[in-house]
Amino acid sequence: xxxxxxxxxxxxxxxxxxxxxxxxxxxxxxxxxxxxxxxxxxxxxxxxxxxxxxxxxxxxxxxxxxxxxxxxxxxxxxxxxxxxxxxxxxxxxxxxxxxxxxxxxxxxxxxxxxxxxxxxxxxxxxxxxxxxxxxxxxxxxxxxxxxxxxxxxxxxxxxxxxxxxxxxxxxxxxxxxxxxxxxxxxxxxxxxxxxxxxxxxxxx
Length: 204
Description:
Layout: H1 10-23, H2 25-52, H3 54-60, H4 78-81, H5 92-99, E1 103-109, E2 112-117, H6 122-128, H7 139-145, E3 147-148, E4 151-152, E5 157-159, E6 170-172, H8 188-200
Antiparallel strand pairs: 1-2, 3-4, 5-6
Helix pairs in contact: 1-2, 2-8
């Protein structure tokens, strides 16, 4: 029995496939769906990282939370420290903003398809994370820097049940002693940066 050789030219197959992306709806949809699945998988990781973050969980527990994030050396909690109104859910708007992430194909250059993801910018995050007092500083960025309305780390804070306060659990005083010292902690900037790194390191 004679041996029969079959030659496969991968460059030709690649050329045919690239042309088919423009001409064959089925292949174009297959590629697009594959990219969307990669995006959704990474978006799920982002939301899981956000909802699993200690700062998110501490704020969701409200004025009676323990200091899960360790930002106050275990004294009081972030909800009261940041002065939110008692019934407020401060993380809800930020979570909604992250849920709005979408992806769309923008252009093609040669054999490369480009997609755009609408990551929220600084202004959008600031708008979704305004504090309930002062000049409306973004609490999401403030917990990363320790700068709250220009008062570095709100150094005059006493954790105490006080029904007349916004959170009903904290008092802010001036030029007196501080019971809680704030420690800046990476938060939303790091979460978004991790998402970008995962996307940028993905090769399709």
